[in-house]
Amino acid sequence: MDNSIIFAVGGVILGLIIGFIIAKTLEKNNASKLVKEAKRNAALILKQANTEGESIKKDKILQAKEKFIELKSEHEKVILSRDKKMAEAEKRTRDKESQISSELSKSTKLNQSLESKVKDYNHRLDVLEKKQIELDKLHKNQVQQLEVISSLSAEEAKEQLVESLKGEAKNDAMAYIQSSLEEAKLTAEQDAKKIIINTIQRIGTEEAVDNCVSVFNIESDDVKGRIIGREGRNIRAIEAATGVEIIVDDTPEAIILSCFDSVRREIARLSLHKLVTDGRIHPARIEEIVKKTQKQIEQEIIEVGKRTVIDLGIHNLHPELIKMVGRMKYRSSYGQNLLQHSREVAKLCGVMAAELGLNPKLAKRAGLLHDIGKVPDAEADMETPHAILGMQWAEKFGEKDEVCNAIGAHHDEVEMKYLISPVIQVCDAISGARPGARRQVLDSYIQRLKDLEDIAFGFQGVKKAYAIQAGRELRVIVESEKVDDQKAADLSFSISQKVQTDMTYPGQVKVTVIRETRAVNIAK
Q1: pTM score, two decimals?
Q2: What CA–CA distance (Å, rounded) separates 70 from 63?
């Protein structure tokens, strides 16, 4: 019994020992597997890390090269800019040196001329002194001879002459006073009317403003790049479509629009506003927006004309005349806005006509229309004076004879036949003669720009012509079907020769001929 228990216990102990040994063996095998798996994962991680490190290294090298190239280009730009400024400074210095040398030569010539004139003057002065001495001797001799002949001294002769002159002067003075009093009685009413006119002259109005440049404000300078477009195609399309010079410079949040024609400038300003607001800026979109804006401006011109005639109380005006009145808003005369000038003349005419006992409504009508000849259409004869042209249009659209005569006679182009005509002439002079109202130079400048464009339109194949850069450049757009590349070059030369022979201008005029070919297809 005891032996069986011992064997049983021994078997159990032996089984436990064997099981422990087996468990340790299995645990060792699992540990070796885990170590191998860990080594394999570590190798993969190291390989992946090396790959990522190489890619990061290459990226950093590329970035460093790009940064180096960028810094190099900026440095080259700075160097070029400095070289350009130095060249310009050298040129200015040379110009000043040549100018100073010419001024010195002129001064030397003037000094020589002055010295010769001084010598001549001194010589003449000596001759005159000698002649004066001889003349005094002759006069003294003549006086002595007269005293001997008349048996009177010089003092006695003077007294007798003065007494006789006093009597004649009294009679002449009395006759003059009598005639002056009679003339004053006859002209008293006329003088009173002049006083009224001088009083009306004191009406205060705005002074002339600069009307060749508009400023288009933008939210940020990033918009300037979108307006310029890739390689400047957008800004060229805007300038070609509107005829306005777009100046994009360092002015913060602003773009300058330059053009002598206010209508073109307003079309360009509104078109830019629409394009920037919409965000789509490309040549096709620009042409579409410009056409829509032109129609909008034409409608606005009609509305301005209607509001003006309503404000002034003028009725039954022909629609074409209303349109001309609206176009005055975008026209200036010697720097004075034509619509403001015409409204002012109309009000002055109404007041003056009422004071003189004339029809104030008729006077207002003639005053408003007196300068419609300054807003001609394409069919108008540009050689005809604006007063005659305005009179012809007024007759064409059924205005009364008094109004037509007042329009035609306000610059004495025709004879005045009605009392209202001098009223219009005087009120026009009052509005234009006040200080700051007009600038003669501006009107001649605008006429010169128009003459440049008219010369270009005189050649075949010219589609559009714009005088820009203050008249220093004439940009001509031709029809590609009628003008090839060779003819475009010949046309540029011909126009430049025509400008050189027919016009007088300071500096130089650059003639640029643009020929554009387009191929358009529609995908459906």
Answers
A1: 0.46
A2: 10
